[in-house]
Amino acid sequence: MTVEPDSSSDRVMEDATMAEKQELTREGAVATSGVPMPTIQGPISVDATNPSTTKAAHTSISNLPSAAVSEKTLRASTPTSSEDTGVSHQQHGKKKGFSFGKSRKAKEAAEKKNSEKEEELAAIPPVGFFKLYRFATPLERTFNIIGVILAAAAGAAQPLMTLIFGRFTTSITEFGKIEQTIAEHRGMATAAERAALEAAKHDLRIASGHNALYLMAIGIGIFITTFSYMFIFNWTGELNAKRIRQRYLKAVLRQDIAYFDDVGAGEVATRIQTDCHLVQEGTSEKVALVVQYFATFVTGFVLAFVRGPILALALSSILIVIMFVGIMMHKFMGPWNMQALDAIAKGGSLAEEVVGSVRTAQAFGTVAVLRSKFEVYMDTMKEKGRKLAVVEGLGVGGMFFAIYSAYALAFFFGGILAVREPNKYNAGVVINVFMSILIGSFSMAMVQPEMQKVTKAQGAAAKLFSTIDRIPAIDSADPGGEKPNHVDGTITFENVKFHYPSRPNVPILKGLTINFPAGKTTALVGASGSGKSTVVSLIERFYDPISGTISLDGRELKSLNLKWLRQNVGLVSQEPTLFGTTVRGNVEHGLIGSKWENASDAEKLELVKKACMAANAHDFILKLPHGYDTHVGERGMLLSGGQKQRVAIARAIVSDPRILLLDEATSALDTQSEGIVQDALDKASKGRTTIVIAHRLSTVKDADTIVVMGGGEILEQGTHYDLLADENGPYAQLVANQKLAMEAAKAKAAEDGEEVADPDAVKPAMLAVSQPGSPVTEKNGYDLTRAVTGRSLASAMMEDITAKKLEEEEAAEKTPNMFKMYKRLTGMNGENKWFLVLGLMGAMASGMTYPALSILFGSALQDFQLQDPNLLKHELTVKARYYFITAILAASAITVQISCFARAGWDLTAKLRGTQFSSVLRHDIEWFDEEKNSTGAVTSDIADTPQRIQGLFGSTMGTILQSLTTLIGGCIIGLCYGPLLALIGIACIPILVSGGFFRLHVVVLKEQKTRKIHASSAHLASEAAGAVRTVASLTREDDVDRIYSTALKGPLKVAVQGSIKSQLLYGASQGISFCIIALVFYVGSLWIISGRYDTAHFFTVLTAVIFASIQAGNVFNFVPDASKANGAAANYFRLVDNVPEIDALSPEGIQLDPTQVQGHIRIEGVHFRYPSRPGVRVLRDLSLDVPPGTYVALVGASGCGKSTTTQMIERFYDPLIGKVTLDGVDIREINVASYRSQLALVSQEPTLYAGTVRFNICLGANKPMEEVTDEELFAAAKNANIYDFVMSLPDGFDTEVGGKGSQLSGGQKQRIAIARALIRNPKVLLLDEATSALDSQSERVVQDALDKAAKGRTTIAIAHRLSTIQKADIIYCFADGKVKEKGTHSELLALKGSYYELVQMQNLSRQQ
Question: pTM value?
Fold first, then answer.
């Protein structure tokens, strides 16, 4: 048999995995060293070659004559990993089922086919660049063109600055030559020479003033152009993205349901939240930055080749070297990087599975096994990470060797040219050419990450636009089609054949012909997969039949206007979707498209109240805090299941539709809630064409016609009694599966001389003398609230616990001492302490490289003042040699720094992930009940927290130390060589450093802020996309579009207003550095003229202080990383240090001897409230006794405390008052792990993990997996009725079950869960509604397995379907958190109390 897995859950997991991978691959490498000389302003992102490193920070290469370029810049130029070139989260359609009946070869063929389909879906070509702006207005396009011109101007201005710098240098060196000539005469200078000196001073003063003004003008120009283009592109980008978001959501809601079979709500949410953001990012300032960098590249190289073509050609060789090293890095790092990412993703998937089923993990004591499995993935990640660290260090070191060697080449070859062509090559030309080439080269390095953003936007837009342009076959936006004035409600199917588009080989309906009479109720029953829900989907026109016709009042559905059709059909499904608004708002959604859509508020409210009364919802709504204006929460989570269902019924009938479709509208409810809702449905269906689908046959026995379906065909039809006449008929067999035995009750009643009432004659209306909490009680408006009395002892204890928890939370909010946390983290990474020491030494050495080279730089420029050509050539060759030696030393230091820190970072990440995973599973269930500790949040934390901590403790820590070393070293050298000029520079440091601060806010934090302000609107879109069937059935498409459009206006306004201020500051920070350079140059020139400084000292101070300060400003790039790391570290230690009240890993407590355990469970006077809901009393003085070896059943309405009781027995919680004992010993005194080893739990939704059948069953064993024998395994499987099925699989017990057991059906998963429970040979077996989610046929097989499992051991079972527990030794009937009745099935029936009432509501047997 082929079993279709739950594609939606698979898709969600794919989403999560892809999200983690993309987040990791967006993480960039970090700057670790500075390069003397040119830098380029603007954001720099880097290659995602190392997920252990921090997010791409933004380096200021500030276009100054001598600034700092970091490794980050270089790594930006290297090719990125394949993951990083992905355009967006990919969704590849529905995952195929695991074909158990096929051979391995057949499965491989099927997998290959699936793979080809995925490749086909992924092959949508990116849109053209200009297509990104297809929704922009002509005005916006005009402004974008202006912005491009301004960006090109800003880019061209940067190399032009080197021209001014070169002229400054020439002026100073020419003045120095004259000074040197006079100095050689030792005061014997002639009058002409003195006159020449005075003229040179005058010329230098004038030239310095002019050049300083030119620099200031460039600075002001860059301020104006940068502000203008950044604001223009931010503004137009926001508008463009807003339109795309609107059009995409509108297009999504327009699609037919078949579209969502392959896409899924998870992908829609991803596209709304992620891909729209990618398009916005790629159409905003990234485009302008690309233009700016290209302009810088072109201008730089043109200027260099114009000023000195031979030297420019020689220096261009560094580009080739850097590109070669980058390619080699990618070649080696790519495969290892992908393997590391895959290991992280697999670990994340395991964590999500385990955390999502933490009760199962703790109940079976599987924490150690699952932790070891998780650590295998982390070890793989660590192994690959260490290799990546070495290659990364060597690669970046090689790049920096090329750069520093270029300095040597510039002065060596520049010296030769200066001697050979003194009129063409002087100090100014050499510096001008050298700086222009470097600035141009680094601008190309920085283009790559920005281009990548644009490329990602093109890919993301392709997916978005393909949906926007898609016109579905069933188009809700099509205004065409008939709109009849009158509807009778007769629906006819004629020879209808159908299969789902996503599963064309699986026929669902096989020539179905059926008539649904107007005004009558028709029930569809049958096994799962028989086509019942498909009929409803076809009537709603979620799909069209493959062949045959469906008509309404003689008109084919296809000929009718789609919205008109859906507005005349009311739909209530099994799991009703409410939207995050008020009760009234939700019901009013049903008025959309009706004649009351535009009625007054008062009129609408009357209609709403009328519908709610008909739906039995009015009374409970009035008891809500704000009545009809009470907010129901996300997806109606603040209401109970029954309440949500009744609001959904009111919504379905408020517009008085002629047709009502009820798709298992009560199957998820307990018996008492079902009674209320069923009564509401009975009312609602009067006078309407009603089609009902139900597994619980008790809900449809009064239907006018019951149609039994099987295999897409009608097996039989008739009334309830007509169909029961054929005892061997399909309907009679379905009834038999749910039939309750009454014979014992008859015998008991006969003994007492009582007459047994006819169950079919007992109607809910007759049960006026109902028990408190019954449907009738609620219907009659009895006050179910607790009377105000004195505080109970449990209340007092709960208040103490709550107060204590508040104190703990307040203490937790205080971030611990940063240095203490860092000390602990360093201690955790103790095995790498020598690597950290080496890394720190390398960071300090690379940090001092730049200040040290400033001495060489000043000295080399002074050499150009030498008159003797041979001496000039000799001195510059010596300086070049020193530069080359420095290149070797610096490259070595950088290699050591990156390799050591990256290795330590990978190791720390692996350790943090492992310990966090263990700490999470150690926590008690109370911790997981808190909203902040949901599965998604905890899984995300396991992925993010170590990543954020490592973001600071990996290469970033070395970079920060290196930047500080550069700043301090530069200031010291500056003070040593020229104290006064250095002090001016040091005074300007706060201004220069502020440039980094503003870049942080504008460039780095912009993305975070954008995501944050779009969060609420994105949530609204996700909610609509996740409930697309409900939106379609209510024809809410235009309503959602209107609300979403309004929700986007707020973020747009905030973004544009914030952009003005931030871009002004950003532009100013880019221009101010030129003004400071101009100031220092001018003052320095005056002091050179006065003789206070010579050329060497001036340039040494300038490069050491000013450009070191600009480099230090890059420290702000790591503020987000440091802030995140602080918060993450605090959260991590809070988690690790927290010792839960119920510690499953604690060795303390009594160790049980399995041979002595009897299995006698007693609950004595227990009071309990869930800590997450302290105001709700759950158990109230509960006492029950479960003797060894007995089968005890717990029954009662939802919320009466049944499941809570099993959780108390499992010791997931401790009682506030009272105790739970095992064989007379308080379970709080027993070791938690030892106690739970004697219990086994089978829950309603069985949890399996990705792995083999063998692995999943052996997880339950009370000994290591490898010690479980095949005999034990087979015995457990046989007792669970799963052995034969498993052996029929191609790989037997070694068959993979898929993530969360997705390759198995519900019944198969449940039986494997039973086998897992049995293999531990428990003394106590807990069954929590183990069959309630199954259809009748699957239930029968599983129930047989449970009956086998219960033999010879203490069994406690919870069931809503009372037919499954009628043979229990004792049945405890719960109400209001305590036992109301107890006894056997027949004894409780004879009492005619609460249990009897529950039985009557489910009873289908005929009285003869």
Answer: 0.64
